[in-house]
Amino acid sequence: MTTTTEQLSATTLLRFATAGSVDDGKSTLVGRLLHDSKSVLTDQLEAVEAASLKRGQEAPDLALLTDGLRAEREQGITIDVAYRYFATARRRFILADTPGHVQYTRNMVTGASTAELAVVLVDARNGVVEQTRRHAAVAALLRVPHVVLAVNKMDLVEYAEPVFAAIAEEFTAYAASLGVPEITAIPISALAGDNVVEPSANMDWYGGPTVLEHLETVPVSHDLAGCPARFPVQYVIRPQTAEHPDYRGYAGQIASGALRVGEAVTVLPSGRTSTITGIDALGESVDIAWAPQSVTVTLADDLDISRGDLIAPSGSAPRTTQDVEATVCHVADQPLSVGQRVLLKHTTRTVKAIVKEIPSRLTLDDLSQHPDPGQLVANDIGRVKVRTAEPLALDAYRDSRRTGSFLLIDPADGTTLAAGMAGDSFAAETVKVVADDEGWDF
Question: Which residues contact 226 (CB under 8 A, 6 or more apart)?
């Protein structure tokens, strides 16, 4: 029963993000995907048709299904991440339509951070451009396991196979050098609907899947189930009533793996050990629970545990550290500087920290590094070394996207400064960073 439930959870939901350069047709692709899969409500389609007529367009502009901000519609661009939910008979989807402009790279990081698949669009007339390489690098940096290259506007190059083949070869070689594990290239015309939901009659030389067919069938393993168990404590339940005078439960959402009654666990950062005596899920006692269930766990020993502590199996517990080395994407308008005091939020734990060093800033178009930049500004991606005031049980991002990620926060006003990924940058060690030296200490 457990295996069946885990398999069902892993195969019926796919989170994916779209990315690409300006005017490559991302929003049109998403609109076509929603429209042709019959995932658009009648009133939504009527609103799009009315807005299109107002702009002098005879046919409905399907990009308006996701471009909801007034500035987006006026300029014909995507500015913020648009999330949409839709479903087919084979799978449920959560998609993030992300902006193409360089200045909105941080928005792509937000949209792709939880994605299992990224669709990178390329204009068939322009081929692989700087922004294409940037988005491929971000997908590799975020360890997105599946990347689809959608070569769009094939109708404007007369559906020529050599054009598609050259673009697919160039992109695949670049993405593979970054360590992207799986790359699928599909020739499409989002405007005409070729190979989006239905196979194209104009490209009989292509025998692969349509975009929707690939989205419906791509295997999704969900690293949540495959990773060692991690249970960040959100709340301690202590009713102290006549019915439950000695009850002490630890509530939270399982970040990865599975917890079992009778399992020996370690509480971090204290390092104290105990055994799971009970797991409550949805008001019922269960013998096993897995990510991403929200549960309450009871232990055999009365330990000092509070919000921010992490419960993990003793045999696979992460090491604690106060020295965090990571790649970060800077998302705030104010810069991140060496020596700056910040808050580091990891799962349910928030601790004080100091930015010890910024060894390098990454140039994503050619993967070169700018050593010792001194600070990172909006949309920059770089390596940082941070010293925390208290130990953290931090996994490497390559091992767990959930417990290997963190946020850097401005302690003055709570602004999110950067999104961090602990450990190495890319699966294939393409980028080398400057060796570190001694920094600040608490």
Answer: 257
pLDDT in tens, 93-111: 998 887 755 666 677 787 8
List own/partner pairs for 193-200 with CB under 8 A and 24 or more apart: 193/32, 193/36, 194/154, 194/155, 194/159, 196/29, 196/32, 196/33, 196/36, 197/32, 197/33, 197/36, 197/37, 198/36, 200/154, 200/159
Residues 412-415: contacts with CB under 8 Å, at least 24 apart? 415/332, 415/334
Report in angstroms the alpha-carbon separations of 182 from 34, 135, 149, 186, 312: 25, 15, 11, 13, 31
Structure-block tokens of residue 197: 């939901």
Cα 95 to Cα 117: distance, rounded to the nearest angstrom = 10
The pTM of the full predicted model, rounded to 2 decimals, is: 0.80
Q: Which residues of 340-351 are buried (b: 16+ CB within 10 A; e: fewer)?
A: bebbbbbbbbbb
3-class secondary-structure state, position 300: coil
End-to-end CA distance of the chain: 50
Which of 90, 75, 104 minimizes the C-alpha distance to 17?
Answer: 104
